[in-house]
Write a structure and sequence with these properties.
Layout: H1 11-19, H2 21-25, H3 34-47, H4 52-55, E1 56-58, E2 62-65, E3 70-73, H5 79-90, E4 94-96, H6 98-112, H7 115-122, E5 124-135, E6 141-152, E7 161-168, H8 176-183, H9 185-200, E8 206-213, E9 220-224, H10 227-250, E10 263-264, E11 267-268, H11 274-280
Parallel strand pairs: 1-4, 7-8
Antiparallel strand pairs: 2-3, 5-6, 8-9, 10-11
């Protein structure tokens, strides 16, 4: 359980803890959204296609209606369609529409037809699981896990990289740095690189992102994180692990205002940011 030293921490767990330890220890986790569901669907289709059929059930476009003795367009309100979905869910499958599968095929073709991305995927292992242990200076040992989307083979042209796939609203190179900072993708890069080196003693100093917009025509982007960005991520995840160990030892999990150094009578001060003052001027 959370709060036990043997709880296995992932990068996403660590970042949620860092955001607010008290919220995390109380069981908070991000709910799946339409965009995350789509991202997982594309990931499975591109990176783990052999398992696609065991994870997803594609609803037919039509079903046979006994009463009318003819095929009809698929309708989730029809008894036959409801029973079919219940059967798939019972088997542990996620149900998707036929349109979702067609979108997957179109998006996948766009990605694989890109010369560089196609070469990268062809010479890489996919969905590589790593487990490890953070040895904290406090004496605690924290079990860790992570799953790397794409690991190019050692004898390939991309052997210095690790890679992650991301679906997004825009693959614009001008917007991406903000997305990296907002969602902690630089933390993910450093975490993956250090875990991989600990497991293999093989340095992967470059971290790339394959981006794809989640709507037609499924435009793609190829990004390489700077060393400065990765180092920022390394400092953040290591600081988060150290703080996590402090919380484990003390049993104190601070909330949003408990760590504030700008408060009066227990209320955290809200001040305008620099850009707001500049805008007024």
């Amino acid at each position: 359980p959370r709060g036990h030293k043997e709880y296995v921490m992932s990068r996403s767990d660590l970042m949620e803890f860092w955001h607010c330890p008290h919220r995390w220890i109380k069981g908070y986790h991000k709910k799946a959204t339409e965009s995350t569901d789509y991202g997982q669907l594309i990931d499975c289709y591109i990176l783990d296609n052999q398992a696609f059929g065991s994870k997803y059930a594609v609803a037919p476009k039509e079903y046979y209606n006994k009463k009318d003795d003819k095929d009809k367009p698929w309708n989730w309100n029809a008894t036959f369609c409801k029973d079919w979905r219940a059967e798939q869910v019972e088997q542990g499958k996620l149900v998707i529409k036929s349109e979702d599968l067609e979108a997957c095929k179109d998006a996948g073709a766009t990605m694989l037809n890109d010369q560089i991305i196609g070469r990268l995927l062809a010479c890489s292992d996919k969905q590589v699981m790593l487990t490890g242990t953070w040895q904290d200076e406090s004496g605690l040992s924290i079990p860790l896990k992570t799953l790397i989307d794409i690991v190019p083979l050692k004898d390939s042209a991309f052997s210095q990289y690790l890679c992650d796939m991301k679906t997004c609203r825009t693959a614009s190179p001008y917007q991406w740095p903000r997305e990296v900072w907002k969602y902690g993708y630089h933390v993910q890069a450093a975490f993956y690189a250090d875990m991989y080196y600990a497991a293999t003693k093989e340095a992967r100093d470059g971290f790339t992102h394959i981006l794809q917009e989640s709507y037609e025509p499924y435009e793609i982007g190829r990004r390489l994180l700077s060393e400065e960005f990765i180092e920022e991520g390394r400092e953040k995840y290591q600081s988060a692990l150290k703080k996590y160990c402090q919380c484990l030892k003390s049993g104190v999990w601070p909330g949003y205002d408990d760590d504030s150094n700008m408060s009066i009578d227990g209320f955290t001060i809200t001040e305008p940011e620099a850009w707001m003052i500049k805008e007024k001027a």
